Amino acid sequence: MKKSVILGALTVAGLAASAAVAGTMDDVKARGKLNCGVTTGLVGFAAPDANGEWQGFDVGVCRAVAAAVLGDPKAVEFVPTTGKTRFTALASGEIDMLARNTTWTFSRDVDLKFEFTGINYYDGQGFMVPKDLGVGSAKDLDGATVCIQTGTTTELNLADFFRSNNISYEPVPIETNAEAQQQYLAGACDVYTTDASGLAATRATFEDPSAHVVLPEIVSKEPLGPLVRHGDNDWGDVVRWSLNALIAAEELGVTSANIAELSAAPTNNPEVNRLLGTEGNLGEMLGLDAEWAKRAIMAGGNYGELFEKNIGENTPIGLARGLNAQWKNGGLIYTPPFR
Amino acid sequence: MTSINDPKPESFQLSQLMNDTRYRSYTFQFIALIVLFFLVGYLYLNLVENLRTAGLDISYEFLGEPAGYDINQRLVEYNSQSSHWRASVVGVLNTLLVAFVGCILATIFGVTAGVLRLSNNWIVAKLMAVYVEIFRNVPVLIWILIINAIFLIALPQPKAFKSRGGNPPEAEMLWDSFAFTGRGIYAPKPVFETGSWVVVAVFILSIIGVFAYRRYAKFALYNHGRDLPRGWPSIAILFVPAILAYFVMGSPIGLEYPQLKGFNFKGGIWARGSFVALTFALAIYTGAFIAENVRAGILAISKGQTEAAAALGIRPGRIMSLVILPQALRVIIPPMISNFLNLTKNSSLAIAVGYMDITGTLGGITLNQTGRAIEAILLLMAFYLAISLGISAIMNVYNNSIKLKER
């Protein structure tokens, strides 16, 4: 009798301990490191370079958040996740945020209980084929063998596309981008499909990129952005506005070159002042200090700089800004005002 | 004088639970049971509590929703509008197919290698030893990947079968009916036309006839001492009537040959590369373990048995089939069960080569698209448990039938 009471008490105590969930921001500060989920390796978006340092467009977002919260863009623990493991990793608290080419969809937002904190890349699903296949359009792919990464919206779009065009295909599900690349190059599939940005990034790593073409059809909308767990709104705000700060910086002409000068003293543009903390108390509202956005921008430059450095036209990946240009230049990149 | 040795009536004291060997084991088992019970209870409550905090609940409603994805190898009707449940069923059947074909192949590989490893021929014995040691000591996932890569790279892709610009094609089909490609093996498919049921029925009757004949031969040997030939009559009974029926009915069974159309071969039977690679890798890996079991089983039979049988004038082939194997099987079968179970469970590595088994559909894409990880994993566990217990049950029935009959 006595024993079972003790065990019962232990059970209750254990429950109480595990049920208590602290704020993610406090956890990150206490740990001194941000756990950021990224891909297992997609050049341009997130991949370790020759020195083992993670580089890329999504990595830039992680570093900006780390710089804003912890003051050090290097204080990031990058956790490689596959299309399959990413949501479990985030939901279980293994990572604090996920920046992994993840498409913002209704069911992920609502049903999986995640919070998308913005869009850092507007993408769409495309098809890549070897040039000598002689295919000019995705509609000519009747009967083709298609390599897809599993656990993504890609396979659902693919099924929809082929069904609506009433053509057949043979899906070959693949776990990671690297494996898909190997299978595609070995000729196990005629077509490789994923987000157009991913296709460009993958093609850039081929021995002879010019032997492969990306077909003109874009069959889906893929707004990619960082996400956090549902329910911790303070942390969600930090990630959302860190990304917005990068976008606003490009819009306002704040670059890593002139940021020291602009933040030294209040300028005559009040929005720049509010962003860089020389005016107002936006940082305080967020639970951070006044210079949070300045550090976020200095981590890797503003949105445009990150884009050009990692995936822009002068890189092997060679993506044009397109939809991802600032709204003033005819794109969709737009941030709510800092006020 | 009355005896003073009357045993005192047994009085039970609480300390006996600890000190008396008769009760001690029960005490400890009871305590262990309670601890286990609380541990499981704690984990369960913890799960429920944490799910509640995260605003999630356990629900299997997702099984009825449309899956939305396609599966390449489907043994039952399935399309992207079918439910997640249907997708799971397709996965289950794919798993069972690999397990079934794999177990048969593994038994063939294993028994052959195990017997040959005991061969008196030095080279054959050593070769088999090398096979066993290489395959047993490298993880099966690596073998699956290696074998898949070999298939993928060594065999030509379908487009190599096409002639371009007047040049002869780089690869040709075997007898114009088999194509070995990196995407799988294509073979002709029998097409059953009207009247073909007669041929099939005759063939099934022939199979029964073979068994009946062998039974009769055994009866004749045991009761009348007449040794009837078994080899050629069996083959004759099996094929001659069926071939006769085939021509009498006017060749009702035709063949559909695979043909290169567009990107791939169409028609015929297609064993996908992923299926071939996975099944072959699992079979050859498990076969190495079975070979060792077979060898152990044969070695377990004392040499005196062979010598006694030889002294009675039994021929070497008969010694193996009538004296050694029936006894060796008793040693071989129990570990064989666990090898079959291992093969079945290892088939969950299928996703490494893109084969859509139950782990790939229910535990992979469905889990991902619905986010119902706990539900999907619980269902997966239940499936593997059921299938493993099923295999054990079947093999145990067989094991009982060959066990030493104690009367």
Could you walk me through the main structural features you see in this protein, from its secondary elements to its overall organization?
- The complex is a heterodimer of chains A (339) and B (407).
- Chain A is of the alpha/beta class and 339 residues long.
- Chain A has two domains: 24-122 and 224-329, Periplasmic binding protein-like II (D-Maltodextrin-Binding Protein, domain 2, 3-Layer(aba) Sandwich), CATH 3.40.190.10; 125-220, D-Maltodextrin-Binding Protein, domain 2 (3-Layer(aba) Sandwich).
- Chain A contains 14 helices and 14 strands.
- In chain A, strand 9 (144-149), helix 6 and strand 10 form a beta-alpha-beta unit.
- In chain A, helix 3 crosses helix 9 (233-252) and helix 9 packs across helix 13 (292-300).
- The radius of gyration of chain A is 22 Å and the shape is globular.
- The relative contact order of chain A is 0.15.
- Mean pLDDT of chain A is 86; it is low at 1-21.
- In chain B, strand 5 (259-261) and strand 6 (264-266) form a beta hairpin.
- Chain B is globular.
- In chain B, helix 3 (84-117) runs antiparallel to helix 4 and helix 3 packs across helix 8.
- Chain B has twelve helices and seven strands.
- Chain B has helices at residues 16-19, 21-53, 84-117, 122-136, 140-154, 196-224, 231-248, 273-299, 303-311, 316-346, 358-370, 373-402, and strands at 179-181, 184-187, 189-192, 253-256, 259-261, 264-266, 269-272.
- By secondary structure, chain B is mainly α.
- In chain B, strands 1-2-7 form a three-stranded antiparallel sheet.
- Chains A and B meet through helix 1, helix 4, helix 6 and strand 10 of A and helix 2, helix 5 and helix 11 of B.
